[in-house]
Amino acid sequence: MIRAWLVAAAISGFLSVAAGAAAAHLSAGDRAAGLLRTGTFYGMIHAAALVGVAAVAEAHGRPSRGLIAAGCASQAAQCCLASAFSGWR
Fold first, then answer.
1. DSSP of 20-71, one letter per residue?
2. Number of domains in the chain
3. N or C terminus of the chain with fewer C-beta within 10 Å?
4. DSSP type of residue 87
5. How many CB atoms lie within 10 A of CB 36?
6. Enclosing domain of residue 40
């Protein structure tokens, strides 16, 4: 479970950096660039939070239900934010 959270955090961080690069170089307008920058910021925050959850779970040996819920909630929030900023409904 801890390895899966770290992989998810790494993928989220990578995609956030890629979105930030796209915002800096490929955006068509100021509004699109601002939305991509905001999404990138939130993605990096959620990736860092997921690394923190994995670190706490590793320190305690076995992840508790609360940590599992925190990891799942972090990823769910990131997916919801990504869909909200992309305009997908």
1. HHHHHHT-SSHHHHHHHHHHHHHHHHHHHHHHHHHHHHHHTSS--HHHHHHH
2. 1
3. C
4. T
5. 20
6. 2-86
